Amino acid sequence: MSAIQLICVIIFSISTLCLLHSYLFFPLLLDLLSNQKKLKGPVFNETDNDLPAISILLAVYNEEKVIEEKIRSTFKTSYPNEKIEFLIGSDASTDHTNEIIRRYVSLYPQVKLIEFEGRTGKSGIINRLAEMAKNEIFILTDANVFFKESTIYQLVKRYKDRAIALVGGNIQNMRFKKDGISLQEKSYLSRENKIKYQEGVLWGAMIGAFGGCYSVRSASFAPVPRNFFMDDFYITMHVLENGGKTINELDALCYEDVSNKISEEFRRKVRISIGNFQNFGRFARLLWPPWKGSAFAFWSHKVFRWLGPFFLLFMLVSSGYLGMQTIFFKLLFLGQVLLMLLPVADVILKRLNIHVSLLRFISHFYLMNLALLIGFIKYAKGVESNVWKPTQRYQ
H-helix or E-strand containing 366? Predict the structure, then answer.
């Protein structure tokens, strides 16, 4: 075997192992290590008089379709209303969002609308709302994520343990259809919630809260840098950087209508990818030493996934070269090409109203990795603005 062939074998093997570790071995290891284990520590009882006061921070832009239900679900709660402050920052909304919020200000004096005249971006609005917030615990949420009566309490109860600095919620999909990718997104959300919970149980290091619903101590909140996407991940990792514990509370249930449109979800994944690489650069030092629980989870759960498109390309190129010498790698190369063509077949079948779930999952995997690659390219070019428009989630 020549030196080039040996290098190609090493590249192919490492790339394959990293992908398998992130998507298969790491979840299996979490299942093994966390078997029968649950979150521990003191909690507030729902009837305690010393339940902490909370500030709910919400950035919105043209959310007229959901903002009314959002406000209603927030105050249909078992948590004492007198301990709730609800700050809503409207990022220069041009629809009826502000008008709807104003109607509720008179019904709920806890609601405060802050109107931003120019597009600011979610992180800029959250930073400003955090400056205005008065209470000990922040709950950060999205307009299209609806609470159950116990959600706020479940997000807050574990702060009786002073080591806990951030608590993630358990976001569930409201419904799905077989003609899009909402089923695949629902499965992804369910799997991610489980992984995040297990990371918290084992190491007190949930690697990234879902931005649609999580809480954080005001003392642990960090203003998100200008033009940063993925403010939720930044805030989570800043907590870990400063020694706080981050956990996922599975009883903090809330519901989100995830996108069923491939184009909409792809656009959202590209935006998330940009934020991933921004945070990768910012928190790279937390990857060492790799045997530390939080670092191991960061590598396994996030970094290897973010590098997934590069691993796929390395596997394709190295097996293509080796395939010119051996039948084994030729078959591996052809197999990868076939898998990469399956999203095309999925599109063709979809137009014929034929929906194959397994094929859609494979398409979802490759589309996510394509979004990661495009996000990396956009990140490398430089990010000039993080303003956003809502994903079309309404099925």
Answer: helix 357-381
One-letter identity of residue 337: V
pTM over 0.70: yes
3-state SS assignment for residue 41: coil
Query: Mean pLDDT for the chain?
Result: 91
Q: What is the H or E stretch that residue 215 is in?
A: strand 213-217
Per the CB < 8 A criterion, the answer to whether 17 and 45 are in contact is no
Residues in the chain: 395
The dihedral built from the CA positions of residue 285, 267, 140 and 212, taken in this order, carries a sign that is negative
> Which of 185, 237, 230 minimizes the C-alpha distance to 206?
237
Q: 49: how many CB neighbours lie within 10 A of its CB?
A: 7
H helical segments located in 140-285: 151-156, 182-203, 231-241, 262-282
| Per-residue 3-state assignment (H helix, E strand, C coil) for 163-176 | CEEEEEEEEEECCC
| Local confidence band at 393 (pLDDT 50, 70, 90 cut-offs) | low
pLDDT tens for 38-61 read 999 999 998 888 999 999 999 999
